Amino acid sequence: MTSRMSRTTTAATRTGATNTGKSGQTDIKPSDVYELRLKTSHLQLRTRQLKTQLNRLQDRILAHTNAINKTFEQESDQPAVTSNHANSVPQLKRSLDSATNTLENLLEQIDNARNDDKTFLVKELQEEVKLAYCEHQRLALELQDAKLEANQSTQRRQEMEFRISSQHINELKSSARELQGQNASLRDKAIAYKAKQKKLQVDHQIQEHIQKKMPPQKALEEADKKAQGTNEKLSEAAQNLNEEKSKHRQKIEELRELIAEQKQKILDFLEGRTNEEENEGENEGENRSDDGETKEQ
């Protein structure tokens, strides 16, 4: 009975090893590794149990052998002893044969366990686990670099958003208005300075005419000519200033249009990049789900 059970266990072990070897060549999962480890531990435990049983059987065989030897050594005329001896010898022989058969089966199971493909498969899986760990570490580093780059991109985007924000544009407009006010103040000061300078020139000429005793009519004519020339120069200067003012306003409008255009381009770029990141995230999620389904299959 023990021999049949041992042979059945050996056949099941070989069948499991063959199936496991075939499945290990096609696809290996962490659950398979865990299951193989459990089976290996179970086999080791079973081997220890069988060794213990073998030692017990050997002790029993030794005890019976000693009893037989003592029986043969003793000399007794009692028929009961002779009857007991005649009955115990066949029983001991059967026990010896059974123990020998069990020992052979156990030795065969030990050899099969040593030469089983599961042992080598476990070693290969351990190496694959090490490689998977190294790959996991590499992917973790890449993920860390990607997060750092994403943070830098977010910071740059915030800076660009601040540049195109209403606050920044209002600051630029305020600076432009201050420059316009400064230009107008400088223009008024220049006109006032030129008018004062002309007035001083007229006063100086009047003094010269008085000192030279020129006729008043002639002095008035010269003063009118000079005043007319001065007015023409002032008109020309005012016209030039107005032209510069209109050009300045035109440049300001062009600058505003350029700022609005750049703002729209930056917004379009940021929206496009956000959409690309979302699409990439969706694609990565789909790829991960596909990988998970493939592994499950």
UniProtKB/TrEMBL annotation:
Name the record gives this protein: Uncharacterized protein
Keywords: Coiled coil
Stretch list, region Disordered: 1-28, 210-250, 269-297
Composition bias type Polar residues, residue spans: 228-241
Residue stretches in coiled coil: 89-196
Lineage: Eukaryota, Metamonada, Parabasalia, Tritrichomonadida, Tritrichomonadidae
Residue ranges with Basic and acidic residues bias: 285-297
Source domain of life: Eukaryota
Composition bias, Low complexity: 1-21
